[in-house]
Amino acid sequence: MDQTRIPTPIAPPSPDVAARAQERLAGLATPAGALGRIGELGAWLAAAQGEVPPRPLTDVRLVVLAGDHGVAAHGVSAYPATVTEAMVRTIVAGRAGVSALAREHGVAVSVLDIAVDADLSDLPAEVGARKVRRGSGAIHLTDALTRNEAERSLALGAEVARELVDDGAQLLMTGDLGIGNTTPAAALVAAALGLPADEVTGRGTGIDDDGWTRKRDVVAAALARTAGRTSDPVELLAALGSADLAATVGFLVEASTLGVPVVLDGLMSVACAVVAEAMAPGAAAWWVAGHRSTEPAQAHALKSLGLEPLLDVGMRLGEGSGAVAALPMLRSGIAVLRDVALLSEVLPS
Ligand SMILES: O=C(O)c1ccc[n+]([C@@H]2O[C@H](COP(=O)([O-])O)[C@@H](O)[C@H]2O)c1
Ligand SMILES: Cc1cc2nc[nH]c2cc1C
Fold it and tell me: Quick one: signal sequence residues (predicted)?
């Protein structure tokens, strides 16, 4: 039986409302186009909300999807895999990098253990309620997941997005956490876009030249191992992804299906967005890229999606931090469409 999924096209934010928002933007008491991307963001959010001017963003949610990766035992990261568990605990305690940014910008953060290779059952039950497995396979040696695990991960990511939207979330963000995860994310981008390992391999948490060469070889071996099997997105996630990355894909597809805008983060988020766009063509119209990571694969992935990141400040933290950091620009877009006078109101008649 052919298990290949039929791509499900996604309708964009309302073109009618987008046109009305552009009309309001063009009529503001500013020189035409003077608000640049801030104005464009306001118009995009208006179209996404179906309302001009758009409503203030009072309910913004970030979900950090955490997991370990078999490749971490093969010298591809500057840090040991034990950091993943430690940082899940740190996010729960509200003391991670993203925790500080999220408090500053009024974003509610939750962290989910999708595939951390540790027992986190002492944490609040919701953290581990969707655990798929302990760690995903080392992709240069074996598939990351079974096809069934990939399907389950996609479904649970979708479920997470649905729950947040049902609970009133106006804007969603995805974050990632997992030592070694820039290796499968780079491999996903390479396989999806037909790029060689050299062009997608970055320094991740800060590996040295020897580490980079090892990581490049791991990505190349993973691509060679799975050649010819990765045109179907579910197969791609099973072969080269992980449970946490597959869950992120499911989350992104579902958010766009529900018509809720998403701010993407760094490499993992944008690599998953490439796979989500393949599963749900048109979904990218519901996403904005929060920042440009230092990872080369993210640049390729952004380009393929036609997304220009809002910030370019050398961030490479993950955790959703670059999405949260970009939020003031989105709020600014809403403020100008709501509060700036029209030129017709201020000019003497
Ligand atoms: O978001 C990014 O683009 C990004 C770039 C480099 C590193 N990270 C974070 O660092 C970890 C992965 O780096 P590595 O070197 O272990 O593959 C993981 O926890 C990510 O959240 C994140
Ligand atoms: C300390 C630390 C925090 C992180 N947060 C996301 N990835 C990370 C990797 C490390 C090493």
Answer: none
